Amino acid sequence: MPLPVELYLENCVDDFSLIPPETWENWFQEWLEILNDYLPTALSYEVSLRLTTDTEIQTLNSQYREQDKPTDVLAFASLEANLPQSEEMLRSMPLYLGDIIVSVDTAQRQAQQQEHSLSTELAWLTAHGLLHLLGWDHPDERSLMEMLHQQVILLEKIGMSINLEV
């Protein structure tokens, strides 16, 4: 049985309908099934995905990470490791995992560099953001390779493949 997930999709890019909302919802359901061991127990989950421009993501990157430049993906986890969740709360409302923001401008450039489709790059970056929401990080080469390997697994689950040349 798939894990229920509510996706809040904000598309801030003009005429961008490459990936329909239903497809994104299906992808998140499949990804959360794979990542079940990393999920706090809840009846359902919520995630916010915002597809935006380099200009907006640069503003956010500067404001929250003190890096005044565009980036490909930002993830803002709403969960804290030691945040207590009451049983009643977990049974009555979805657990909000956080926000993923992807720059479509940067994704387009990276897709061209990697010689794959924009939809593949968007899925790749969103999967990366989702892993960050669940506590994954890459402070060193070994953890980066583990995270990238997990992203490959997530993309394979939705029928996409990506060539990792790291």
TrEMBL record:
<keyword id="KW-0378">Hydrolase</keyword>
<comment type="similarity">
    <text>Belongs to the endoribonuclease YbeY family.</text>
</comment>
<keyword id="KW-0862">Zinc</keyword>
<dbReference type="InterPro" id="IPR020549">
    <property type="entry name" value="YbeY_CS"/>
</dbReference>
<keyword id="KW-0963">Cytoplasm</keyword>
<keyword id="KW-0540">Nuclease</keyword>
<dbReference type="InterPro" id="IPR023091">
    <property type="entry name" value="MetalPrtase_cat_dom_sf_prd"/>
</dbReference>
<feature type="binding site">
    <location>
        <position position="132"/>
    </location>
    <ligand>
        <name>Zn(2+)</name>
    </ligand>
</feature>
<feature type="binding site">
    <location>
        <position position="138"/>
    </location>
    <ligand>
        <name>Zn(2+)</name>
    </ligand>
</feature>
<protein>
    <recommendedName>
        <fullName>Endoribonuclease YbeY</fullName>
        <ecNumber>3.1.-.-</ecNumber>
    </recommendedName>
</protein>
<dbReference type="Pfam" id="PF02130">
    <property type="entry name" value="YbeY"/>
</dbReference>
<keyword id="KW-0255">Endonuclease</keyword>
<dbReference type="InterPro" id="IPR002036">
    <property type="entry name" value="YbeY"/>
</dbReference>
<feature type="binding site">
    <location>
        <position position="128"/>
    </location>
    <ligand>
        <name>Zn(2+)</name>
    </ligand>
</feature>
<keyword id="KW-0690">Ribosome biogenesis</keyword>
<keyword id="KW-0698">rRNA processing</keyword>
<comment type="function">
    <text>Single strand-specific metallo-endoribonuclease involved in late-stage 70S ribosome quality control and in maturation of the 3' terminus of the 16S rRNA.</text>
</comment>
<keyword id="KW-0479">Metal-binding</keyword>
